[in-house]
Amino acid sequence: MPKLTVTWPHQVAIGKNCILEKGIFFKYDGTWQQGPSIRIQDDSFIGTGCEFNIRMSIDIGKGALIASGCRFVDHDHGIAAGRPMRFQDGPEQAIVIGEDVWIGANVVVLKGVSIGNGAIVAAGAIVTKSILPNEIWAGVPAKKIGQRQ
After folding, report:
1. Known Gene3D superfamilies for this protein (predicted)?
2. Residue 32 pLDDT > 80, yes or no?
3. Contact (Cβ atoms closer than 8 angstroms) between residue 2 and residue 29
4. Taking all residues of the chain, what is their mean pLDDT, rounded to a whole number?
5. pLDDT of 30 above 80
6. What gap in Å lies between CA 3 and CA 136, rounded to an integer?
7. Radius of gyration (Cα) for the chain, nearest Å?
């Protein structure tokens, strides 16, 4: 296992035959609770320098391919006036990555997103909406550009 950074080790569960490259940051950003909240299924790949900034949960399906530099964030800050934003908790919504999903380099996946089985997300995309199975998405913000046949 390469060097990883994990804030709460009991919050991370990694399946069999996974390949994790160096410099991955598993940051559980909530208060202590039973885990795991970051669940990676069998045969998945996670590239160098990925960050998982999770308060609620993320599930990564079997055989998922996540390229280098990707970011996953399942929460926001509040934006009410009169109180510094850094002290405000915002909405939290789980992230779900299906089986056999390919996420290109430097993709950002935000709270509440589900990516269906067999979907592809192009490098550099920012995903703010859920993606159906076998769809191909790209752009900022990400939009559907095709369908796997």
Report:
1. Hexapeptide repeat proteins
2. no
3. no
4. 95
5. no
6. 32
7. 15
How many H helices and E strands in the chain? 0, 20
Residue with token string 């299906």: 98
Phi, psi (deg, nearest 5) at residue 56: -100, -75
Position 70, amino acid: C
Sign of the torsion angle spanned by Cα atoms 37, 55, 9, 68: positive
Q: Which helix (H) or strand (E) holds 55?
A: none
Residue 31 has a pLDDT of 74
Residue 65 pLDDT greater than 90, yes or no: yes
Burial class (CB in 10 A: 0-12, 13-18, 19+), 80: exposed
Q: In order of start, what are the domains of the chain with their CATH numbers?
A: 4-78+87-147 (2.160.10.10)
Count Cβ atoms below 10 Å from residue 65 Cβ, excluding itself: 16
